[in-house]
Amino acid sequence: MPKIVIYTRDWCSYCARAKRLLDAKGALYQEIDIEGSPELEAEMRRKAGRTSVPQIWIGDAHVGGCDDLHALERAGRLDALLGD
């Protein structure tokens, strides 16, 4: 399974939804909580080109946010990205 990284904030409902989907898939991920860390937030913005959370990478591919992750699932493409 490829490395999964998800930038989050602890109060974010979209972050919780994205993590629930990954958990349901049995995917292990590294969560980076950017709350209170301008450095981590700047890192996320630099890498993703976006300011909203969550921002998700599967392997080297930037998936995007929660809606993007769920769209991959609806399209039947998420399992392939996860290596299933």
From TrEMBL:
What the entry lists under Pfam families is as follows: Glutaredoxin
NCBIfam families noted in UniProt: GRX_bact
Q: Name one GO biological process term.
A: cellular response to oxidative stress
* Family statement drawn from the similarity comment of this UniProt entry: Belongs to the glutaredoxin family.
Q: Where is the Glutaredoxin domain?
A: 4-63
Q: Name one GO molecular function term.
A: glutathione disulfide oxidoreductase activity
Any one annotated GO CC term? cytoplasm
- What exactly does this protein do? Has a glutathione-disulfide oxidoreductase activity in the presence of NADPH and glutathione reductase. Reduces low molecular weight disulfides and proteins.
UniProt keywords (A-Z) are: Cytoplasm, Electron transport, Redox-active center, Transport
Name the CDD domains on file. GRX_GRXb_1_3_like
**Known InterPro entries for this protein?**
Glutaredoxin, Glutaredoxin_subgr, GRX_bact, Thioredoxin-like_sf
What's the protein called, per UniProt?
Answer: Glutaredoxin
What PANTHER family does the database record attribute to this sequence?
GLUTAREDOXIN 2, GLUTAREDOXIN-1-RELATED
